[in-house]
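Bit of a strange request maybe. I'm writing a small parser for structure token strings and I need a real example to test against, not something I typed by hand. Could someone generate the tokens for this chain?
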Amino acid sequence: MLEKYVRFYLISGTVLAPVMVLFMGALMYIKLPNPAKLSILYVSPTNPLWKVILLWIIFLSVLTAVIYYTNVWYVRKLYGKHIDKLRELLKEIGEVE
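Reply from user aminoacidic:
Good idea to test on real output. This should exercise your parser:
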């Protein structure tokens, strides 16, 4: 059961980062005025919509990959030894019966 909780923790922690970036990006586009200086994050005559969307997709993909591998390492550091000990105990109990 602990493995299921750890897996949920890993997945939810990984999904949370891009969702928050998308939320903050939406707030940025809605609440902030367009910058006077041309930016790669905003649509402009020199920067079409497809380039802005592609930039966001690439950024979110890289961010998600980094967050996923960081979460895998961190979860393993936090719970790995405990899960291994529990597995070992379950094996010993299974051998006794």
